Amino acid sequence: MPFSWLTTSRPIVALAPMAGVTDAAFRCLVKRMVPEVLVFTEFVSTNALTMGSERTLRMLAFDPEIERPLIVQVFGADPKKFLDACRIIEQLGADAIDINMGCPAAKIVSSCYGSALIKKPELAAELVHAAVRAVSIPVSVKTRLGWDTPETLIPFCTKLVEAGASALAVHGRLYRDKFSGTADWEPMYALKRAVNVPVIGNGDITSASDALAKLKNLDGVMIGRAAIGNPWLLRAIVDAVRAPSGGRVVDGGMKQELTFSEKMPLILEHCRLAVKSKGERRGIIEMRKHFGHYISGFNGAKELRMKLMTLESLEEVKIALTGDQHCS
After folding, report:
1. What pLDDT digit, counting tens, does each position of 172-184 carry?
2. Which of 66, 119, 274, 292 makes an SS bond possible with 283, Cβ 3.0 to 4.6 Å?
3. Which fold has domain 12-256?
């Protein structure tokens, strides 16, 4: 069955697209642990795709046996390139496309990508319309509460839905907030009452209890930074939000509840997946961004982290992890 935002199981639990994090290795790891979770790629440039960038095409490689439904996130500002890029993505076998209208990074915003589109609602709607015209798979949008006020959220998103967006994911901060302060979920609840498409909330979910408390009238929740080094959290959240009414909520999956020896097999599996998709040296080097998160909080973590940051082979990592008895 083709993927549809309307028929996918509720409540939706999604792993947020994160640059440098949600590559094929991490997505496969998460899907093996929690098949119910929806996964997104790192965002890819529509400009680069239309130019045939090999690096960008490599970022879209995925395992169809594990990762489906796979949602590819794109960014850009040229409707013609959106049309062409989305056709390429569909041909590569993606199940859905998501447009990034929320990234607050300066180099993204300065090119009128990401959050900058919040200030250009007509262009934002035109991009959605171009993508929807190009493909038969669903097109969604991930955005923020607004540029400097949440009062624009409903009119902005209404325009996107009118242009053809079949789902919306909203991060509960304004552009000006970047990632500081506390995420505000109230505007998301109001948005859900105003539109007739699924709305997924994102921001500051660090436990199963957080997810359950913040879900309310939304169609689902999206977990980002809290899943880095802690993919077990996603299992706990799925179990909590999909538990039968009255069921006991358990905040399982948090880092403090797992010993180092319990974590180690999954860390090594993540390494193996990274090596498989990127080659040994590059795969292990790119794992460095995950190592610190995985071992944080354990005795001897600082020394082990420093050692791991120098390694370039899977065997070296295995020896470092299995031979480090002082981490507990």
Report:
1. 999 999 999 999 9
2. 274
3. TIM Barrel (3.20.20)
